Fold:
Amino acid sequence: MELITNDRLKIAIKILRACLFIGLIGCALITVGILGVLSYAKTQGAPPLAVPLSTLFYAEDGTLIGEERHQGETRYWVSLDDMSEAVIDATVSIEDRNFFDHNGFDYKRIGGAVLADIKAMAKVQGASTITQQYARNLFLEHEKTWNRKLTEALYTIRLEQNYSKKEILEGYLNTIYYGHGVYGIEAAANYYFGKRASELSIAEASMLAGIPKGPTHYSPLVNEEKAKQRQNVVLRSMVQNGVISNKTAEQARAEELTFTGNKVVGREDIAPYFQDAVKKELHSKLKLDQDTIETGGLRVYTTLDPDLQKMAEEKVTNVIKEDSGIQLGFVAMDPKNGEVRALIGGRNYEESPFNRAIQAKRQPGSTFKPILYYAALEKGYTPSTQIRSELTTFSYDDDRSTYTPRNYKNYYANDSITLAQAIALSDNVYAVKTHLFLGDGELVDTAKKVGIKSNLKDVPSLALGTSGVSVLEMVNAYATFDNGGTRHKPIFITRVENYKGEIIYENEPKPKKVLDEDLAFVTTQLMTGMFDEKLNDYTAVTGSTISDRLTRFYAGKSGSTDTDNWMIGYSPQLVAGIWTGYDNNEPLTIVEESHYAKNIWAEFMEEAHQDIAPKPFKPTEGVVGVYVNPDTGLLPTKDCPVSRLTYYKKGTEPTEYCSKNMEDVKKDKPKKKEEKEKKGFFKRMFDWF
Structure:
């Protein structure tokens, strides 16, 4: 009997030793396995936290004007400091109460979930921590496989090893799905409540915190009753977690919530053509690829003035008849820095995203003449330079090609007119003679100086704007005159930030002096002539149809061809230009259509300046203002009493007086018969000179 007992004891000891040995081996293997996993995770380093994020576009006043979404998904990124405390407390309480204490895995919770599942014989309770969920959101599909769970565990370890709890929680709250294509708490706050995440109340935060468990079931826009029940669960968790009191929870339950649905705070999706230009700049200037622009979560701060953009769009709508097929391109720019304040590329972006302000190349007509006459001033012309205006056929090139420019309605002075009159009346013969006088290449070179990049054909008709250019190019050229001969490249973007708020691009103005500032001012003063009826001669000045509506100092030039109509002009504070015409080059045969450009320009400029004190163009130190007779360009006398203040570069002003014979010859020239007795402010202003 004793022998049997000893044998059994020996066997038991052997079994115990074996179990102990196996246990030690098992612990060693587990330890090695854990160390191996940790070493592997450490070797792999910090996993990237990049996720697709919506790129946002802001106007110059900080207004959100649009966004670039990835596959229709709304995703924003905000820091933890820009989220209300209620959001953080509600999310941690319902999703992972021990988040700040564990290392990525909540073993107690895992054990409880396993027991609950065994008891119910079904999957009834989850145990994923916030870190695990974040790993899943960042890197994995949501299929339920052992391989996915293992990979999730590895990513969880890597996240915990390389990022702080604050960084993990911030990332989780910015990537969790809240239903309706909305990712992240900022987008959810916008979508459901029309608020920012920093503005959410406890009631709103607890409602949103309940959605991720089942967005299709707990969205208040899908089933408000279920959403309310889920909110109650969240509030109880917050009480149990000690972040709010029972009283506060009851107040939150009783709070009536208003759901907006699909509202983005501060956003009016405006200026789509402008936004397209901004995206093009991101690609060309910053060398960003399309994927980065669409999903990089960029914050793009632009030069757009929402008020000016709205004004421009309203003027287009008010002036152009709704059933008209005519199109347009419009640009408004700050001449001091080249920043584009408003842009319209067509009448309907949805129907045609083709940007006629930038992409279209149309003949600028007589709006090209200020560039010509600046070049002439450099070669010795003055506002008083006289050339004969009459029907003329020009021969050019070795093959003796001929060209016969014609004035509007075939009106000619059949006499000499001054440069000041030629630009105000838009005399084509004067322009072509001047171009030929300047010689090959001069006009093209000057155009390049002021920012015209389009190919220009150096033929006699170039003086009349027969080579296609864009509206943006022409407005930029006029801005150069307005800015005293200093050119800025057109600017659409002032600053770009990444999703973390770090500046990755900031515009650095690079002005370039390209023109003589004195002659630039003389050119500007010549362009005021289109509104001054003292320069009327064989026809009326080209701005006579709108000058009654102008209440301040403007310089400008209109232009037209059979298929194009332009008006470009500026004040000391703003330059704007517009082209109107048909995409298919259909001739402009309706009289009303030929006035669209001028009317839109006049209405826009007047409203744009309504809160700005009138400001004249300031003469430069190198010019002198002289009262001259507008018909002769000479000093007035009692025989030639009409005078107009005209500016010249010092040393080029006239010293000869107008004689009676000169005035008598001019009196014989045909004049425009009709002249209104009532004059607007702009016309009365010129009468003072």
Q: What stands out?
A: The CA atoms of residues 628 and 634 lie 5 Å apart. DSSP finds 23 helices and 20 strands in the chain.
